[in-house]
Specification:
By secondary structure, the chain is an alpha/beta fold. Helices cover about 30% and strands about 25% of the residues.
Length: about 270
């Protein structure tokens, strides 16, 4: 018998910010079994100019048109656009990879939409370490999950929580704890920063039971997350230091994590749960 030909995974990107452009370039450079089949943006003129730099220029389509062009759409847009991007794909029984994971908490109806239509929301590991271990532990009983995030000041300036509470961090000289609470609370107050905490909570014991601290640290150049999990199967502590991308709120590993996820979807050997 001849080798079975598997159709390439048609990937769309919604939003061409730092992560979206990085993904587009990397897929365009050549990924086995993956093709860039569509891009959705708010500024089509600017995007069209930039897309000319690629070897293969994908069509610019609307959010509603994405299902006709794509099997998977990666959401790399402002968080308030997640429902508009995800709903058409999920209604068509397709897959959405959200980077605005925090926005899922306010749009849980998207999960119902996926369930009813055979679609799927696939949250990438992103800037986090050990989500596989957390999801495994969650099959048993997790007693507690605690996360401490420390970020350079530039990555936190302008966060709604800081503005609303008149917390000034621009000129701090020492590390300052600026938040203690849950990922659900943090998702509203730090929408561009704490998608990792929401992903951790969804993998483990939920957004209301996971404990979270956020520190602004003028001595740091990297986004640092330390996670401590106590479960009936294992107890573990993990620390990761992520190098920021051109967007100080986003680590370089975020785009690479999405690429790893996409490659798994078509890989003959898949490693990790």
């Amino acid at each position: 018998m001849g080798e079975q030909q598997i159709k390439p995974l048609r990937v769309g990107i919604a939003g061409l910010g730092t992560v979206g452009k990085t993904l587009a370039k990397m897929i365009d450079a050549g990924m086995p079994g993956v093709v860039l089949s569509g891009v959705a943006v708010r500024d089509a003129v600017s995007a069209a100019d930039w897309l000319q730099e690629l070897n293969t220029v994908p069509p610019i389509v609307s959010f509603d048109q994405m299902p006709a062009f794509c099997d998977v759409v990666v959401e790399c847009a402002p968080s308030h656009l997640l429902p508009a991007i995800a709903a058409p794909m999920l209604k068509a029984g397709k897959t959405v990879v959200p980077l605005s994971v925090g926005a899922l908490l306010e749009n849980m109806d998207l999960i119902d939409l996926a369930r009813e239509n055979g679609g799927q929301i696939t949250v990438p590991t992103g800037a986090l370490l050990g989500l596989d271990a957390v999801t495994a532990a969650a099959q048993g009983t997790i007693h507690s999950v605690r996360m401490v995030t420390r970020k350079p000041v530039i990555g936190l300036v302008g966060a709604p929580f800081l503005v609303e509470n008149n917390i000034k961090i621009d000129d701090i000289k020492e590390p300052m704890r600026i938040f203690e609470g849950t990922p659900r609370e943090a998702a509203k107050g730090f929408p561009a920063n704490l998608n990792v905490a929401v992903a951790l909570s969804l993998a483990g014991i939920g957004p209301d039971k996971t404990e979270l601290q956020i520190w602004a640290d003028p001595t740091l150049t990297r986004n640092t997350h330390t996670i401590t999990v106590d479960a009936d199967s294992a107890s573990f502590t993990m620390t990761i230091e992520n190098i920021p991308s051109a967007n100080p709120k986003t680590g370089r590993i975020t785009a690479l994590s999405v690429l790893a996820l996409l490659s798994k979807m078509r890989a003959p050997l898949r490693v990790g749960t």
